[in-house]
Amino acid sequence: MIEVDAEGVVAFTQALVRIPSTNDPMRGRDERPAAELVEAKMREWGWRPEVSEAAPGRPNVVAVVEGGGGDGPTLMFEGHTDVVTEGDLSTWTVDPFGGEIRDGRLWGRGSADMKSGLAATLYATRALQLAGSFPGRIKVCALADEEGLMLGAHHFVSQGLTADVDGAIVAEPEAGEICAVAKGALRLRVDLTGKMAHGAMPQHGRNPIPAAGALLAGLGTLQDELQARHPAHEHLGEVYVTPTVLRAGSEEQVNVIPAVASVFVDVRTIPGVEHKVVAGRVAALAAQEGISSEVSILVDRPPVDVPTSDPVVAALAAAHRSVTGEEPVYGGVPGSTDGTVLTHWGGIPSVVYGPGGKWIAHQADEFVEVAEIVRCTRVFAEAARRFLNGDY
Ligand SMILES: [Zn+2]
Questions:
Q1: How far apart are CA 125 and CA 379, in angstroms?
Q2: pLDDT digits 0-9 by tens, 84-116
Q3: Which end of the chain is more exposed for a tag (fewer CB within 10 A), N or C?
Q4: What separation in Å is there between the alpha carbon of 356 and the centre of ligand 1?
Q5: Are 207 and 257 in contact (CB under 8 A)?
Q6: Ligand 1 geometric centre to CA of 146 (Å)
Q7: C-alpha 335 – ligand 1 centre gap (Å)
Q8: Distance 287 CA to ligand 1 centre (A)
Q9: What is the pLDDT of residues 233-253, one digit of tens each?
């Protein structure tokens, strides 16, 4: 087994958690200080990180570590430096940015999602480098804004930095599961426009609210239809079509028929469901007599479906088996990750695997098991060795 710096990776995770790199630019907070710490660590090891801004003040940090062992593939390790906000402090029993270790757990915002995973990718690469030469290279990437619009991953792809990558491991918390599939997300805004009128004379207006009601009923039918046509995925479950926001009229003007009603829809898809088709169906449901409708696509992240036979998945599974002594468990990502962007827009296979529970992300009292950080660092080092040597 490749020897990793167990104390180092835990201490570095702690140092990252102590930086409140919340994705909250409105309040003047972002990932920059965490990205700077990553950059400093890379320089300390003699790497040459490139820093590139995905948006003003929102840096991506990328270092390429050459193996010096001749020609070979390029493996990408990916993590994000931003975290979601701590939320209501009264729901926390620990300091969200204390990085405290107690009962074998490291506590704090981002401990699982995903500062421990990010630290593990750095320390795994360092461990492999110190163990001797290897073929090919590793691209270690700490990207910005995963919790927002994924500006970091989109910027990374637009810079052409995926062109030479053969496979990517995304270190999100998946409780040790190997996740080569991820659900897709399609978020739509539907504006239904009628004609404003006095409530006493509705015959002079065109009320968009009943049209919104018909649309909502139609969305339920659409979900039933999609679920019937696309049976539940073994790791991702069902397709869902969920209205999440409904807006029309005003409490102060109960006697007025509003001109506009808006419905926002959050669609979660599985492989095989075409987002374009779903958006078209919603547009057809929105089109009703006397009402003009407009559907805007707010977010369009297709599902990810990388085969488990892909080298990056196979290398990771073999590494998991040899480091933990256990058979790998395959799972799915319920949301989307930077891996979605890397696979769909960058055209590279990605797999998600990292320390921390699947459900602890974004919650109060977030934590990661310290032993899991170290074990994951070992798995990453071994996965890189296997991937680059073609040993899987
Ligand atoms: Zn994350």
A1: 11
A2: 999 999 999 999 999 999 999 999 999 999 999
A3: N
A4: 11
A5: yes
A6: 7
A7: 10
A8: 38
A9: 999 999 999 999 999 999 999
Phi, psi of 201 (to 5 degrees): -130, 60
Q: What pLDDT does 361 receive?
A: 84
Q: Ligand 1 mean position to 173 CA, how many Å?
A: 7
- How many CB atoms within 10 Å of residue 43? 12
Cα 116 to Cα 285: distance, rounded to the nearest angstrom: 45
Q: Using CA atoms of 270, 273, 276, 282 in order, give the dihedral in degrees to the nearest 10.
A: -90
Q: How many of the other CB atoms lie within 10 Å of CB of 286?
A: 24
Owner of token pair 């374009």: 276
Phi, psi of 245 (to 5 degrees): -135, 140
Cis peptide, bond prior to residue 196, ω within 30 of zero: no
How far is the centre of ligand 1, averaged over its atoms, from the C-alpha of 147 (Å)?
7
Beta strands in 194-259 (DSSP E): 197-198, 240-248, 256-257
Rounded CA-CA distance 337/358 in Å is: 13
What is the residue type of 271?
P
Beta strands in the chain (DSSP E): 50-55, 58-66, 74-80, 101-102, 105-107, 137-143, 167-170, 178-182, 184-193, 197-198, 240-248, 256-257, 260-269, 292-301, 304-305, 330-333, 350-352, 367-369
pLDDT of residue 8: 98
pTM over 0.85: yes
Cα separation of 284 and 211, whole Å?
Answer: 12
Do 220 and 242 contact (CB within 8 A), yes or no?
no
Judged by phi (left if over 0) then psi (alpha if -120 to 50, else beta), residue 63 lies in beta
